[in-house]
Amino acid sequence: MPDLDDQAISKVAEVGIKSQLDEVKNLNVEIDIDPLKVIAGTLNSVAIAGEGMVMKQDLRIESMEFNTGSVAVNPLSLAFGKIELTHPTEAEAIVTLTEADINRAFRSDFVRSKMQDLNLEVQVDSETAIVDTEKINFGLPGDGKVRLSTEVVLQNSQERKTVAFTAVPKISSDGQRVVLENVEYLDHQELPPAFTEAMLDEAKELLDLKNFEVGDMSLQIKRLAALKGKLILQSEAIVHQFPSS
């Protein structure tokens, strides 16, 4: 088997991860090895740090940190430019999303097309209005809440008004996604229930951890923090295989 060092094996992992992403601004993979342990099929640890990673459904991640303990691998696979795990390994992952990241996904053609199929009429100030699905905005004001808003157009005057509500992001019972609960409308204006539910469902779908998985792994949220301008998800991961190019 040819000589293998940290940089060579790290490059293999980096190429594999990049092949799973639509875009990435920066990606750094550091694999710590002991040459004698590698021959026996063990890597000391794997650390991955990424910025500007575009995942499934056009969801961009501001940053991701991913760290494992020792990893059991097939040493022969390394010689052929792959990292083949012989046993699943545990890891910790921290994902940071910004308001801009989540709004980018909310404004995708995929999400807009689903919203257009809904009943978009609403009563505002005793006047019929139409919801503008292109003006949906996801905000992170801090205080552990999110703010969802959209504009409505009054049919008679064509005046535009903003209708908004806050909700509290929580971890779903299975730990697989973020759900929004405790909806509170602002200024006593409400959207059609079906539209409100659709916005909540889209947020839940976009914040499903399956969208952040790279390679054959499963993630489970342990903690979340809704801070001003950003949402941080701290998760545990079981990695079955790292991605290969």
**C-alpha-based Rg, rounded:** 22 Å
Overall number of strands: 13
Tally of individual helices: 6
Provide the helix percentage. Answer: 10-25%
Biggest sheet strand order reads 1-3-4-6-13-12
Relative strand content: over 45%
Order of SSEs, N→C? HEHEEEEHEHHEEEEEHEE
Structural class: alpha+beta
Rounded mean pLDDT is 86
Question: How is the main sheet built?
Answer: 6 strands, antiparallel
Estimate nothing, just give the exact number of structural domains: 2
Indicate the overall shape: elongated
Distance between the termini: 21 Å
**pLDDT < 50 stretches:** none
Task: List the SSEs and their pairings.
Elements: H1 6-18, E1 26-32, H2 35-39, E2 42-43, E3 45-54, E4 60-68, E5 71-72, H3 75-79, E6 89-98, H4 99-106, H5 109-116, E7 121-124, E8 127-142, E9 145-154, E10 160-171, E11 178-185, H6 193-206, E12 216-227, E13 230-241
